[in-house]
């Protein structure tokens, strides 16, 4: 997060993009309480946004605690690993929530890993955190993308935003080298349009080779099965709890 992408750190690139999202009332950098994350707090202050220090393991609880502290009904998640997330789709999601406030979880699909984005109703997340048995929740989508419990909306990207065999998230050094090359092609303070990046990649397909061998992280199938079984066996209980939380 502290490595440079053409003059600004990775996390600052995320913040720059977040500031481009319309009708975004507050920006909160959610990080942990461990000492190695303190430089992120400093950067949040320098960039005039809020910050929250929460659990180092339970990402979902950290997000919930921050959302409740800042009294958010919804929040749009801009993952710090994704310095080219789609600002356009963040705006689409906000517009969708404004017109349909019964949405619990909304996400985009069909775009490269790292470009998609999501939003969650805080009460939906509180429901999940109240019943979940998982503590390590860095990969948490299976816990809330449950249409049998929540009102889930999927926004499938238009064809112009689709790009096959392209990885645009930051997990390993090869991913960083990919982003470093992309950002070096633009002015230092430019907030890059992801469609422009696709044009560059079509003209320079060799850039895709930089991180093509990185394997995307995912939950173990045993954990996925355990989560699904838990929801099946406790559906009635979870729905009652959800009703209680939503009634407050």
Structure overview:
- The chain has 248 residues and is an alpha/beta fold.
- It has a single domain, classed as Alpha-Beta Complex (Spore Coat Polysaccharide Biosynthesis Protein SpsA, Chain A).
- It is 42% helix and 13% strand.
- It has a 4-stranded mixed β-sheet. Strands 1-2 form a two-stranded antiparallel sheet. Strands 3-4 form a two-stranded parallel ribbon.
Give a quick precis of the structure:
The chain has ten helices and eight strands.
Give me some keywords for this one.
4-stranded mixed sheet, 8 strands, Spore Coat Polysaccharide Biosynthesis Protein SpsA, Chain A, 248 residues, 10 helices, alpha/beta, two-stranded antiparallel ribbon, 13% strand
Which helices and strands, and how do they pair?
Blueprint: E1 4-5, E2 8-9, H1 10-18, E3 28-32, H2 38-46, E4 50-54, H3 59-69, E5 74-77, H4 87-99, E6 105-109, E7 118-121, H5 122-131, H6 141-144, E8 152-156, H7 173-183, H8 194-203, H9 221-233, H10 235-247
Parallel strand pairs: 3-4, 6-8
Antiparallel strand pairs: 1-2, 5-7, 6-7
Helix pairs in contact: 3-5, 5-10
Please tell me how large the radius of gyration is.
18 Å
What are the segments in which pLDDT stays under 50 over at least 5 consecutive residues?
Answer: none
Helix content: 40-55%
- The CATH H-level superfamily is Spore Coat Polysaccharide Biosynthesis Protein SpsA, Chain A
Number of helices: 10
Mean pLDDT: 93
Q: Biggest β-sheet: count, sense, barrel?
A: 4 strands, mixed
Examine the secondary-structure arrangement and name the CATH architecture: Alpha-Beta Complex
CATH fold call: Spore Coat Polysaccharide Biosynthesis Protein SpsA, Chain A
């Amino acid at each position: 997060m502290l490595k440079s992408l053409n003059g600004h750190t990775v996390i600052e690139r995320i913040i720059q993009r977040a500031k481009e999202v319309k009708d975004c009332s507050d920006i909160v950098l959610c990080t942990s309480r461990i000492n190695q994350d303190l430089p992120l707090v400093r950067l949040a202050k320098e960039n005039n946004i809020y910050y929250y220090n929460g659990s180092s393991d339970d990402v979902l609880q950290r997000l919930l605690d921050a959302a409740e502290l800042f009294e958010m009904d919804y929040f749009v998640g801009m993952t710090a690993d994704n310095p080219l997330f789609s600002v356009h789709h963040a705006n689409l999601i906000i517009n969708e929530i404004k017109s349909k406030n019964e949405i619990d979880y909304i996400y985009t699909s069909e775009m490269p890993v790292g470009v998609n984005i999501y939003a969650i109703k805080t009460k939906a997340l509180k429901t999940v955190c109240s019943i979940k048995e998982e503590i390590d929740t860095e990969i948490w989508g299976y816990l809330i993308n449950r249409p049998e419990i929540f009102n889930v909306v999927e926004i499938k990207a238009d064809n112009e935003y689709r790009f096959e065999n392209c990885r645009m998230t930051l997990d390993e050094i090869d991913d960083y080298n990919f982003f470093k090359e992309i950002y070096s092609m633009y002015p230092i303070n430019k907030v890059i349009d992801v469609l422009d990046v696709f044009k560059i990649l079509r003209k320079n397909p060799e850039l895709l080779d930089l991180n093509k061998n990185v394997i995307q992280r995912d939950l173990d199938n045993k954990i996925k099965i355990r989560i699904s079984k838990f929801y099946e066996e406790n559906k009635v209980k979870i729905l009652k709890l959800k009703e209680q939380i939503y009634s407050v």
